[in-house]
Amino acid sequence: MVFPDYRPRRLRQNSTFRGLIRETHLSADQFIYPLFVQPGKNVREEIPSMPGVFRISIDQLAAEAKECLGLGIRSVILFGLPDKKDAMGTGAHIKDGIIQRAIREIKNKVPEMMVVTDVCLCEYTDHGHCGCLINQEVDNDATLEILAKTALSHAQAGADMVAPSDMMDGRVAEIRAALDENNFEMIPIMSYAVKYASSFYGPFRDAADCAPQFGDRRSYQMDPANSREALREATLDVDEGADILMVKPAVAYLDIISKLRDEFDLPVAAYHVSGEYAMIKAAAEKGWIDGEKVMAETLLSIKRAGADIIITYFAKEMAKLLRK
Ligand code: PBG
Fold first, then answer.
1. Where would you tag: which of 171, 231, 266, 288 has the fewest CB atoms within 10 A of its CB?
2. Would you call 85 a catalytic residue per the annotation?
3. What is the DSSP secondary structure assignment for residue 92, as one 8-state letter?
């Protein structure tokens, strides 16, 4: 059937028809909102390159979690700024580390809020790499044990799900084993299965003070040029026991999200990262784009590409818009 027998505009003529045939929907219960937690009291400090996103102290967490729940956002992912860093990233897994305390605070005061934790060492190492160093190289196998300890310490503090973002080989299996041995077999792993060595993480590294002090992350994070390799990475994580596969960043990698959606039956998450957020905010501030509309269109595109879950700094803003 071709024009004039078939007219696609028939089903676009009003908002009722458009609503009736809409293929993709955003929903606040599929957002995960990132929170940056720092030491101190009464701290609520806006991150300069991420307008609307704050570093907050532990005493502010319950209020923040309640606000999210009020908007229909039921999950947060935590990032910590420790007061001390060392070569081995010890602060990542100590019992009274910043994240462990943050988890306990949220689960004590707002137990309905699902707490996801980022499992990585870069915020806790003085050199800023995601693993420990041997001869100035990030040593894969030596790092695994520390990551497993970190994930376990999060579960012990009450985390509902752990999300390893370090990109070491074999970490999902190592973390799964450590959790299972300690009776945390019901804690899922959302692996950053496909994480690219991206330049879109800039504002996050300012926020979490975790830029590498030398070199870069290209020996562990993926080359942006590769897509077949994404399938291999995801396959490994599935075989090692991942429950959810994440792609990061999101918008520059919609093709990868779509591929994972087609190839795997596990839920797919996408991380709309700091640089992607900052670009929209900056252009909107200049009046060059309509920030709200671009936000909605962007998040919708991530959904349409195949993501079930979106980790986004826009979670609260988008949830408010969805309520209107
Ligand atoms: C930790 C981590 C990073 C991000 C999430 N977890 C930084 C990095 O890998 O350099 C980036 C998130 C963002 O940019 O919003 N490894």
1. 288
2. no
3. G
Cα–ligand 1 centroid distance for 200 (angstroms): 9
| Distance from Cα 148 to the centre of ligand 1, integer Å | 19
For the segment 63-96, what is each residue's pLDDT rounded down to a tens digit? Answer: 999 999 999 999 999 999 999 999 999 999 999 9
Residue 63 confidence (pLDDT): 98
Give the pLDDT of residue 174: 98
Which domains does the chain carry?
A: 26-221+232-245 (3.20.20.70)
Q: Which atom of ligand 1 is nearest to the CA of 275?
A: 14
Binding residues for 5-aminolevulinate: 205, 217, 274, 313
Numbers of helices and strands, H then E, in the chain: 11, 12
Max distance between CA atoms of the chain, in angstroms, equals 71
* Tokens read off for 196: 């690219």
Cβ(273) – ligand 1 distance below 6 Å: yes
pTM: 0.97
Segment (H or E) for 194:
strand 190-195
Counting as low any pLDDT under 70, the low residues of the chain are none
pLDDT at 291: 98
Q: Is 165 in the pocket of ligand 1 (CB under 6 A)?
A: yes
Q: In the Cβ-directed half-sphere of 145, how many Cα atoms lie within 13 Å?
A: 6
**CA–CA distance from 303 to each of 131, 205, 243, 311 (Å)?**
32, 26, 19, 11
Per-residue tokens: 286? 């200049």
Which candidate in 149, 195, 281, 316 is catalytic? 195
259 catalytic? Reply is no
SS3 323: helix
| Cα-to-centroid distance, 236 and ligand 1 (Å) | 21
> Parallel, antiparallel, or unpaired for β 244-248 and 137-138?
unpaired
Q: Which of 107, 149, 248, 259 is catalytic?
A: 248
CB-based contact 191:245 (threshold 8 Å)? yes
Indicate which atom in ligand 1 lies nearest the CA of residue 118.
6
- Return d(Cα 45, Cα 163) in angstroms, integer: 25
Label the pairing between strands 50-57 and 44-47: antiparallel
